[in-house]
UniProtKB/TrEMBL annotation:
<dbReference type="InterPro" id="IPR000064">
    <property type="entry name" value="NLP_P60_dom"/>
</dbReference>
<comment type="similarity">
    <text>Belongs to the peptidase C40 family.</text>
</comment>
<keyword id="KW-0788">Thiol protease</keyword>
<dbReference type="GO" id="GO:0008234">
    <property type="term" value="F:cysteine-type peptidase activity"/>
</dbReference>
<dbReference type="InterPro" id="IPR052062">
    <property type="entry name" value="Murein_DD/LD_carboxypeptidase"/>
</dbReference>
<keyword id="KW-0732">Signal</keyword>
<dbReference type="InterPro" id="IPR038765">
    <property type="entry name" value="Papain-like_cys_pep_sf"/>
</dbReference>
<feature type="domain" description="NlpC/P60">
    <location>
        <begin position="46"/>
        <end position="169"/>
    </location>
</feature>
<keyword id="KW-0645">Protease</keyword>
<keyword id="KW-0378">Hydrolase</keyword>
<dbReference type="Pfam" id="PF00877">
    <property type="entry name" value="NLPC_P60"/>
</dbReference>
<protein>
    <submittedName>
        <fullName>Hydrolase</fullName>
    </submittedName>
</protein>
<dbReference type="GO" id="GO:0006508">
    <property type="term" value="P:proteolysis"/>
</dbReference>
Length: 169
């Protein structure tokens, strides 16, 4: 009887230790994701143009669809086109490489809310566009995550960035 009681105690302790270590691991992962998401939410809350804020909020999470121009799916250049038309009253070309031709290029450190940022991930010229927000963050239609606020300082973006600036008057 005493032996059975000791084994039950050991089993309870073992289960408690396993639960503790598994919860610690998941906490670390969640904290990292929460911190990254919290920073993006903070950046979005500091957007000066409230129409831009509402537009991004409305489109966040819409999935990526090549050639898409609606809430069923949108690609990066379509998202930039729709945002610029609705928020700034500007007409942009449809393709990101053509959109890059209608900006006044400036240094990344001088970017202002609403400026366009162009990337080359494929190595054959411009193939992606996003819209600068503030504090080194931008919004874009990611091929894997849909419309999302992202950190421009991530190495993948730093390596692929080609040019940035506002649309020419």
């Amino acid at each position: 009887m005493i032996l059975r009681s000791i084994r039950a105690s050991q089993l309870i302790i073992l289960l408690a230790v396993m639960a503790f270590f598994s919860s610690c691991g998941s906490r670390r992962s969640t904290a990292y994701k929460d911190t990254r998401g919290a920073r993006a939410a903070e950046v979005l809350s500091e957007v000066k143009n409230k129409s831009l804020y509402r537009f991004i909020n409305d489109w966040t999470g819409v999935r990526y669809r090549l050639g898409g121009l609606d809430k069923r799916g949108v690609d990066c250049s379509g998202f930039a086109l729709l945002l610029n038309k609705e928020i700034y009253g500007l007409n942009l070309p449809r393709r990101s490489r053509d959109q890059a031709d209608v900006i006044k290029e400036k240094n990344v450190s001088q970017l202002k809310e609403g400026d366009l940022i162009f990337f080359s991930f494929g190595g054959n010229g411009i193939d992606h566009v996003g819209v600068y927000l503030n504090h080194g963050y931008f919004v874009h239609a990611s091929t894997t995550r849909g419309v999302i606020v992202d950190d421009l300082s991530l190495p993948a973006y730093q390596r692929a960035m080609i040019k940035a600036g506002p649309v020419k008057d």
